[in-house]
Hints:
Chain A contains 15 helices and 15 strands. By secondary structure, chain A is of the alpha+beta class.
Amino acid sequence: MEWETVIGLEVHVQLATKSKLFSGSSIEFGAEPNTQANVFDLALPGTLPVLNKEALKMAVKFGLAVEAEIGMKSVFDRKNYFYPDLPKGYQTSQLDFPTVGKGTLDVTLEDGSIKTIGITRAHMEEDAGKSLHEDFHGQTGIDLNRAGTPLLEIVSEPDIRSAPEAVAYLKKLHSLILYLGISDGDMSKGNMRCDANVSVRLKGEEEFGTRAEIKNINSFKFVEKAINIEVERQIDLLEDGGRVVQETRLYDSEKNETRSMRSKEVANDYRYFPEPDLLPIIIDDAFVEEIRATLPELPDAKRQRFLDEHKLSEYDAMVLANDLATANFFEAVVAVCDNAKLSANWVSVDLQAYLNEAEIPISESPVTPELLGGLINKITDNTISSKIAKTVFGAMLAGEGDAEKIIESKGLKQVTDSGAIEALVETVIANNPEQVEQFRSGKEKVFGFFVGQIMKESKGKANPAQVNQILKDKLTS
Amino acid sequence: MFKSGLADIARSLAAGEFSSEEITTAYLARIKEKDKELNSYITLCEEHALAQAKAADNNRAKGETHLLAGVPLAHKDIFCTSGVKTSCGSRMLDNFIAPYNATVVENFNQAGVVTLGKTNMDEFAMGSSNETSYYGAVHNPWDKELVPGGSSGGSAAAVAAHLSPAATATDTGGSIRQPAAFCGLTGLKPTYGRVSRWGMIAFASSLDQAGTLTRSAEDAALMLNVMAGHDPKDSTSIDIATEDYTANLNKPLEGLKIGIPIQHFTEGLNAEVEQNIRNALSEFEKLGATLKEISLPNSHLSVSAYYVIAPAEASANLSRYDGVRYGYRCEDPKDLEDFYKRTRSEGFGTEVKRRIMVGTYALSAGYYDAYYIKAQKIRRLIKNDFDAAFADVDVIMGPTSPHTAFKIGSQSDDPVTMYLEDIYTIAVNLAGIPGISIPAGLVNKLPVGLQIIGKNFSESHLLNIAHQFQQATDWHTQTPEI
């Protein structure tokens, strides 16, 4: 039997506002428990919500970026349930009239093809607080710092057909929210979290299978693993004649398994109704246009521009445009050295390798765009070879200054004086008569041996093109 | 001195006839003496009141002073008062000391008004007789065996018995106007959104509105001048300019077109009450007004719609009382569910629990459309009825309540009869428009209230009409012997 996977994702993005969705409390991460909870966040009697306009703007901005219908009238609703970290006994969310309606997101798949994933809606809602079960001797501590933090819940259509597609969608979404500046997207802090609705059906079947919802997956890697393991579980179940139960499941990354969170099959009755403490939010075209005017160049547009303007390869353009900070870094390097190809290579290969290794974001790179551009300039003006440039780059990372200074202090300037190179070539030829004989008898592979010897002799400083030319002349003369 | 209302006390303070400290001390002493029989206060703010009075006297001596500075006032215990117990008439909040002031309280504080104390009320403002209070029933000063009306029964009894010259109150379905009628007072419920709800403990958010219980329309105007206004902390407060509500009090009523809704004069209305209301309407004719019968065809649906919408909102508004962060908490809970169940079962009274259950039911899957959505449609129809009526008439008048105050305990076993108490007042809340109840006669030595209903933001006009009636009659100066 051939199975098809159907996935829809619900992504919660924490909006990068200064204060909470309905109160003036700060949302900064890591504060002492309950120091960022005011009378409203504590749900004291008589307190009332006031919508944070920045959150609304961010939601609309996102909507415009995914070419969605913008809710000119959006309504907040109360979602009722009891939990100790939900101070009001209801979460204020948006049910029937979300701020962002239907939109789309184009995702580049592994084979390079582009797939359009539908976005059903995106709505604003407030986060709950945290229950702390440790350190309270059998009791539970409640931290309400997070309560009321603005979230944008982005719901996709069930258009996703595999775990890698889900990851590609998430990465694109991540890239987009960073471009828009509406969230830091930090999954490790829970500022972007994902619920995956997963089902399987026989290939060719029209109807969706019963889905399970995997809650709160907090990394791209786990999304892929959780979906794969869940799909496997469902297929095994179905092939053994069982059936999938509609339920909420939790992914355990240590055991690499999903397991049921709620034993009961009953759906919670949240008794949604319109929030009477807030009037419907009515926005007009002028408001929307004002926000549209603040939209930055988005990832797809930037990638296209990198292709057109910088003549990058599809791959380089995508890799660089994917992350706004990387794209900006790249363009800053080009501005210094005016060599897009080398800039792209250095940023996406050498610098990226270092950053990955050191686990630091590009914003904290010890090599600034000015330094890297300066280094590339030294390659293009033949002061150093690409190989020596790696050495210089290493010294830059160690904080030894700019390219000029490092080349100077380490004596790495490329030898371009043909007289000096000739002398080196002659010495090497004279010292290796056996190899000369081999070359002359047709074994051209030893040419590389001579180049290596010469470069070694020059401590890598000889201009490789000149070495090649002179060596060729000498050996064949 | 105790026959006075706010305006008189303000004039005496300005004339130096007595100081704020003197009048405050006198009121506090009178409350201590007389309130044992009435139970109109839950909390007396003695120290705090005297400090405020002294400050007001000092400011007056320096010449910096608001018209009402130094005048004493009582607040319904639904308004949060910083550092003072704010119970909302419930065991649930018996231990709750508010850490902040309601905007209404803050505005009076800024004006230099002295807070005598916090008045008794039906638990979470749910009731029409002030019998559901955790702190016990309030007695009507006109006859202590009778209820003062509710839910602002403590405020009404306190003002009627001269235990405060005036009081703040709130009205969700009639909770200002009906006690005003039962206690012979002027009770104003302003337009929804005119007065901030910040710090006013929510019963039904889309219906709750703060207002006044006073001895006269002039006093109500003086209070509204302090209370009204846009509050950025309340998203439902409306951002339109306030006015001086005393400015139009003396305009003649010549040409006023009064609508008389036939539905407010049908069976169920006590004949003597009706006669008093008809007499009052004749008085308005003498003042130059004309009467016209009108119809509010959907008014019979108002109580049903209200008892879906109000409990639905209340069921969510009262979810925060879970014992986790403040308020009542049960002893030794077994687990979380037990914690919730017992905290809420023990902390809330019967009527509150009844309404939470009704509201929860109305919002439940499968019932939401049949109840909540339907009730909202009725609400729209009721609003349309008023809009249509106001195309023809300037204001609408009728009885505030079908009868005078009833005996304590006489209706408490029958919630539906109790809900019908507000039959003439509830539609006004559903429509969001303002209404005022003024004394308009006595039946067997008990006050009768006339309700005057106006268009949105017509408070100034309502006060003008009430004031002109009070210039021509003396029902509002009648006072119980206590």
